[in-house]
Design a protein that fits this description.
- The protein has a two-stranded antiparallel sheet.
- The chain has helices at 8-21, 28-36, 73-97, 108-128, 136-152, 165-194, 205-257, 262-303; strands at 41-43, 50-52, 58-60, 66-68.
- By secondary structure, it is mainly alpha-helical.
- The two termini are 43 Å apart.
- Helix 6 (165-194) packs parallel to helix 8 (262-303).
- It has 8 helices and 4 strands.
- It is globular.
- Strand 1 (41-43) and strand 2 form a beta hairpin.
- The longest helix has 53 residues, at 205-257.
- The model is unreliable at 1-14 (pLDDT under 50).
- Helices cover 69% and strands 4% of the residues.
- The chain has one domain (8-54, 83-303).
Amino acid sequence: MSSLAGVPSLVAAQEAAEHAAEGGAVNLGELIMHHLADSHEIELPFFLGVLHLPTGWNVNLGPLGVVDFAPTKHVVFMLLAAVLCLLVFIPLAGKARRLEPGKAPAGVGGGMEAMILYFRDEIVRKNISHGADAYVPYILTLFFFILFMNLLGLVPWGSSATGNVSVTMALALCTLALVELSGMQALGVKGYLHTIFFVPEGMPALGAAPITLLLAPVEFVGKLTKPFALTIRLFANMMAGHVLIFALGGLVVTMGAIGAGTVAGGIGATALATFVMVLEVVVAFLQAGIFALLTSVFVGLIRHAH
């Protein structure tokens, strides 16, 4: 997630050791949150120190109050993920245009084409059905954007913006807007309102009124729980893995402080952290795929609400 996430056990151990050498108690919770929390600083490799981002970009938005638009660490890595998407896919798209008709791309282009076709055929089309191809660009962009943000937290001195609940909430709100607008387009205003104010067919008016009053709040809350679930699922999964990695790193010094074998402890903690790192790579792909899959499912559900 934050600085040196690619070698977290060594970093946590080194910083805890330095703190202990200065005579202070090792506070693993404070050490972990220092690396995972958003800030206006980006730690640079080795001896380069810390990059201080500009602050004080306050704008008065009237009823919303004063909002600080200054860039933070997670904003920078979010922009970096977007740039990586452009750097990967614009050249691949250019090569694909130059291919002869009927000829498949080779190398990285072939692998990307296979992944894109899988998403289109097995995820988007199967969940949305009619008109699904119109949603393929958005869902693919969502998948690769989240994937790059997840993976950036697993490289040395990297940071994963998806470990910030504000980022995952913004992505979930984009999906909410897409889902509800898709429902309005497919069902019309009357059909869309029927997804909130539901009355079973053939029910007399005397029974329809209390049923509507009872179910309308439930249906409305149901619409809000979908983006909430997307927000928490992605945020919690990305945060939990990195907390565990840094905790394993700090375990080395903690064992030394209580007189346990630091060599054996260091080897064990490093081995566990390495295993968790490999697992986190799988989680990075899995969580990006789940976010894209659920977006397809939610769009398909509301477009075919009847």
